[in-house]
User: Which sequence fits this backbone?
């Protein structure tokens, strides 16, 4: 059989591909084993059961927060938690605020968007947020939800506007 | 257990309904003399089904009719039933039924009853393993990847719960096209709830249609069955990108599928070897590209430009008419995406501001370098892209005097567009490399299957110039 450039090319590619297939099998082996485990333990419809603490917390929030409410999530963008929270809690409307935001911005956002809840994610809060934990303030009430963040209900009647920095 | 089986039956019914709508549209759109292989018809049906149903859902929103399974599926029976009768009269239904049965038999017996060689059987086993893994991986896990939570899955949930294309409670690139979330929402209506893991079965099905289409196109390019099977397995099992997109709810695989359908048939058409009726399919698939992702319309323009430049360069007989036909196909694709553009305009949404800033030369250079790196970075595509580039080098003799030029221009255009997209994206210097690394594999996936058609040159030497087929349109 004549060794044309095409044949040499195809033989070389085939050899490299076989090596690559070995790597691919090694790469997906842990996932394939996990798929096998999931198939053995329970049927596919149980796949949506939350397993990690954040997911369990979200499931509890979905039970506690009214479906038509708006909530403000104070969390770092980098954690990426906002996307999962927004998905799980939909149709609740999410407004995101940076932990470095000023109290004025928080109050303005609550007033403008009609937010009924403020959710503090796991991200470190700037010092100005300490006002939220003062005993004398009456706007925010902590809800008891076990999870990596804190949920506060908002008494919006006490926010009368006129915010200045 | 019973509940689980019931859900699986509903899911199968939903997927079958999408295929049925697509098949009916195919029968209606194709002329009786369209000599398409049964496997081609089945592979193209998914794209037409998703396109037809999602545009129908957009129309229902405009008419303020809430979605329900009856509203979404019922009216299609008026198309499906006569189309099935017509397909029966043409003999397509019987042929397609036989082929489906034969393919299932071939898969179940690994081709032994059909006399397949060991090499073919090995390729088939690899493909079956890949798709079994991907299907289970899709259906046993909740949504987890970023864009499925942040964009596509979120919108699907919103559309299902609102019974309408309603984005009033979210801000998630609202101007993005909605073929994928609407198709997922359609499956939710069959499932009776937001069951994202099950609805993700749409993606392995889309991958299967893509793979079947790729195989059929290679066969049309005169590649023999063993080589076509091997090339198909080579496309699927090279790096992690293709395989991963079979089980995550992203729009990129569907865009790659529409791109393969539109550009693959256009390549055959430029070679004067396309089956009759290809023009209408190219038009619909161009519409599907523009309606599945924001990047889809630029890809249509690149495809059209590549075809026109090829025709101008090669000067085939009737070149002027052919160029006019290509422009007509592009216009048809644009018209299919027009309702969504009009909808976005009426909503007053800003389009593309999050992806388009100015032209940043330093990003152009760095982006170009990172795209080159991504082409040879094994975890992304294994040796697929280097093989594609080497195949072009092997085909250099036919590049400038045969329709292979179309493929070369298409690949070059896609790579150039990718780099250009990075040059205009508004990103900080620190963020830019991270942005490229998070997106480059997906952008390359859009063009990978259609670019891999160049394998027909080393796999079937001498096929660069195909015999003419006058059956076009």
Assistant:
């Amino acid at each position: 059989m004549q060794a044309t450039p095409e044949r040499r090319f195809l033989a070389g590619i085939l050899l490299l591909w076989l090596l690559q297939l070995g790597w691919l099998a090694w790469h997906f082996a842990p996932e394939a084993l996990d798929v096998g485990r999931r198939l053995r333990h329970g049927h596919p419809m149980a796949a949506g059961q939350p397993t990690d603490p954040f997911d369990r917390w979200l499931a509890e929030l979905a039970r506690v927060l009214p479906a038509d409410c708006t909530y403000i999530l104070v969390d770092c963008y980098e954690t990426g938690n906002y996307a999962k929270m927004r998905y799980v809690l939909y149709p609740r409307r999410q407004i995101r605020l940076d932990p470095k935001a000023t109290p004025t911005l928080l109050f303005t956002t609550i007033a403008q968007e009609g937010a009924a809840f403020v959710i503090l994610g796991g991200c470190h809060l700037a010092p100005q947020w300490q006002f939220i934990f003062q005993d004398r303030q009456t706007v925010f009430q902590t809800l008891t939800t076990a999870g990596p963040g804190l949920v506060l209900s908002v008494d919006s009647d006490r926010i009368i506007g006129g915010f200045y920095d | 257990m019973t509940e689980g089986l019931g859900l699986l039956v509903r899911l199968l019914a939903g997927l079958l309904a999408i295929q049925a709508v697509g098949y009916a549209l195919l029968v209606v759109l194709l002329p009786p003399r369209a000599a398409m292989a049964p496997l081609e018809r089945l592979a193209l049906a998914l794209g037409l089904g998703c396109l037809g149903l999602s545009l129908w859902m957009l129309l229902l929103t405009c008419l303020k009719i809430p979605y329900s399974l009856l509203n979404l599926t019922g009216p299609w029976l008026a198309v499906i039933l006569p189309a099935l009768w017509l397909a029966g009269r043409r003999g397509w239904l019987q042929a397609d039924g036989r082929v489906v049965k034969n393919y299932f038999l071939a898969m179940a017996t690994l081709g032994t009853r059909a006399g397949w060689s060991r090499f073919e059987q090995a390729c088939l086993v690899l493909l079956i393993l890949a798709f079994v893994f991907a299907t289970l991986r899709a259906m046993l896990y909740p949504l987890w990847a970023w864009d499925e939570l942040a964009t596509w899955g979120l919108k699907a949930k919103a559309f299902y719960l609102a019974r309408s294309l309603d984005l009033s409670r979210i801000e998630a690139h609202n101007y993005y096209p909605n073929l994928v979330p609407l198709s997922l929402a359609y499956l939710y209506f069959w499932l009776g709830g937001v069951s994202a893991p099950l609805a993700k079965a749409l993606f392995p099905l889309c991958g299967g249609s893509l793979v079947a289409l790729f195989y059929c196109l290679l066969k049309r390019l005169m590649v023999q069955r063993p080589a076509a099977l091997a090339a198909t397995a080579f496309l699927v099992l090279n790096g992690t990108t293709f395989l991963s997109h079979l089980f995550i709810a992203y729009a990129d695989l569907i865009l790659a599928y529409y791109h393969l359908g539109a550009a693959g048939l256009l390549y055959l058409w430029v070679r004067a070897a396309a089956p009759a009726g290809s023009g209408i399919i190219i038009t619909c698939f161009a519409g599907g590209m523009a309606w599945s992702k924001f990047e889809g319309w630029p890809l249509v323009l690149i495809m059209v430009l590549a075809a026109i430049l090829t025709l101008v360069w090669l000067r085939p007989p009737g070149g002027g008419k052919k160029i006019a036909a290509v422009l007509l196909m592009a216009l048809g694709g644009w018209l299919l995406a027009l309702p969504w553009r009009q909808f976005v305009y009426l909503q007053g949404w800003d389009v593309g501001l999050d992806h388009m800033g100015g032209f940043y030369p330093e990003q152009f250079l760095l982006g170009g370098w990172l795209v080159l790196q991504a082409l040879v970075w094994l975890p992304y595509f294994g040796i697929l892209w280097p093989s594609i580039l080497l195949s072009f080098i092997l085909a250099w003799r036919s590049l400038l005097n045969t329709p292979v030029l179309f493929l070369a221009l298409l690949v070059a255009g896609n790579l150039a567009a990718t780099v250009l997209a990075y040059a205009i994206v508004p990103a900080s210097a620190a963020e830019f490399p991270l942005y490229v690394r998070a997106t480059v594999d997906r952008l390359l996936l859009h063009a990978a299957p259609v670019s891999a058609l160049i394998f027909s040159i080393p796999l079937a030497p001498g096929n660069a110039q195909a015999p003419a087929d006058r059956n076009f349109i």
User: Anything to note?
Assistant: Residues 5-40 of chain A form one domain.
